[in-house]
Design goal:
This protein is an alpha+beta fold and 187 residues long. Helices cover 36% and strands 24% of the residues. A hairpin with a 6-residue loop joins strand 1 and strand 2.
Length: 187
């Protein structure tokens, strides 16, 4: 199993143990569960520098740009963001867009960066994957969105100075990244 697969498995296991905590009746089981969660949290936190580049704080949150991890899959990307306490980035306005764009520009070796925006449910109706809120700020690449059947995920695109593009949600070339938004307070 890949590192991403292992971390996604841990995320699923943690969500199952949280549900199981409600059914726990003994103090010792609750303590063991809390100890397990703390151990996993420590391991995840120590993995963050290996998996992500981290931005400076911005409006009470940080952005985490994935390092090369192989093929991009939007569902795994969202799971990785959830694992570190956030979600695929939700760009609310021009200032946030420019902050994230500037952060992305500091790195190279990839041509697209996935955000949380998508129009998978209805072509042309852009919403955020995590919150379900409508996308309110878009700075499209010239000629975009094309509204292809395959272009359902909102990305920043290198060849257009990191403007937005409607791109395939699962690109298998390995030269894409994703960006997480992590509030200072846990989600």
């Amino acid at each position: 199993m890949s590192l991403i697969g292992d971390l996604v498995f841990i995320l699923v296991l943690l969500s199952a143990t949280v549900s199981a905590q409600d059914d726990c009746c003994s103090i010792s089981r609750q303590r063991a569960l809390e100890s397990f969660r703390q151990d996993v949290s420590t391991r995840v936190n120590s993995a963050v520098p290996v998996l992500f580049e981290t931005s400076q704080p911005y409006r009470g949150r940080r952005y985490y740009l994935s390092k090369p991890l192989g093929n991009a899959d939007i569902n795994r990307s969202q799971a990785m963001c959830l694992l570190i306490g956030g979600y695929l980035a939700e760009i609310d306005d021009a200032a946030e867009y420019l902050f994230v764009k500037s952060f992305i520009r500091g790195y190279s070796g990839f041509f697209a960066v996935y955000t949380g925006g998508n129009d998978e449910a209805q072509e042309g109706a852009w919403v955020y994957r995590y919150s379900g809120k409508p996308v309110t700020y878009l700075d499209w690449t010239p000629g975009q969105p094309t509204n292809d059947i395959d272009g359902d995920c909102l990305t920043y695109l290198d060849r257009t100075d990191w403007k937005m593009d409607d791109f395939r949600c699962n690109y298998s070339n390995g030269d894409t990244r994703f960006i997480c938004e992590v509030p200072d307070s846990p989600v």
